[in-house]
Each structure stands twice: as C-alpha cells, then as structure tokens.
Structure prediction request, 187 residues.
Amino acid sequence: MDYEQCPRCKRQRETTEFFNDRGRRLKTCQFCRNRSKEWNHRNVQRCRYTAKRYYYANHNRCKKLNREYQKIYSQENPVKIRMTNMVSHGRIYDTRRGFYNANNHIDRPFIEQLLHDLEGKCVYCQKEMNINSQTESRDKLLMTIERIDNTLNHSKSNCTLCCFNCNSTRANRYSFEDFLMMKYPIW
Ligand SMILES: [Zn+2]
Ligand SMILES: [Zn+2]
Prediction:
C-alpha cells in the first residue's frame, strides 16, 4: 500500500484516498474533503454571503473575463453558438405562448442530427443552407428551425430545418405538405 502526506491535515494517508468516486485525482484526502463538506453544510448562509461579497468585489473583473471568454468561444465555435441560439429562441417563443415543454424541446444534438440527415440542405428548396452565425441575419440561405405544424411548439417531432427564405415565404400561408410540393415536387 502506498502512502502520501495530505497537504491540509499533514497526515499520512493511503494514495487511494486522494481520488474521488469518478477516479479523479484531488488535492486533499478523503477525510479533509468530508470535513470541509460538513462545515459548508453547517454554514450555508455564511458561505453564500462570502461568495456574494467576492462576486460584488470582483464584479467588473469577472464580467470582463467572462466576456473575453465568450468572444473567443463564439469565434471558435460559430456553429455551436448558432444552434444553441436556435434552441433558446424556440424556448422563449414557446414560453411566451404558454406551450413550452421541457421534456421534448429541441436541443443541439437534435439539430446536429437533423442537419446530418438533410445533408445540410433546406427541406423545401434543397439548396445548401448557411449554418454560420457570422453571416447577417437577413441571409436568405441561413439555416432556421421550421415548425411543421405552426400551431404546435418547438418539439422534436414538430421541427425540421429550412432556409430563411423558405421559412419566411411559407410562414402561415401554406401547410408543410403543400409547400413541400410547391418547392420540390415529386411526381
Ligand atoms: Zn487531509
Ligand atoms: Zn429553402
């Protein structure tokens, strides 16, 4: 059995005590971790107060760091950001109309799967869609979420992808099936 010294309690502990349930290596021993967890539990109010005070004291700095991180992240992952925005816009839309359902609301993996199934093409006009968030919002081929039945919410069974142009042309004028035949007739 291997032993090493815990930097907090300065006692010799078995090496296995420095790993958590998920097998991740941690700085302090199991005993110290449990003790600090108990202490936190008994002093919830005090911990919250300290955290809040720290936050307000470092508000501007933290905000700036966060903004910089977000900027780099969105530059590196424009597609991810675009998809996440689509999901959250759908949630806002549904919530306003009172039919938001958390259980089958669209999510990013779902959109990725849809995009893969459609081979990146608009479901109506079959043109290659633009998925990049860097493009202007009025980009005619921008990928958008299309609800098959406009009276229902953004659930997984009610959503597909189409270009901005087709989405705004169909709007509430035509049904999904009709518009599909108009744009891409299969005789
Ligand atoms: Zn310790
Ligand atoms: Zn289209």
Notes: The mean pLDDT is 90.
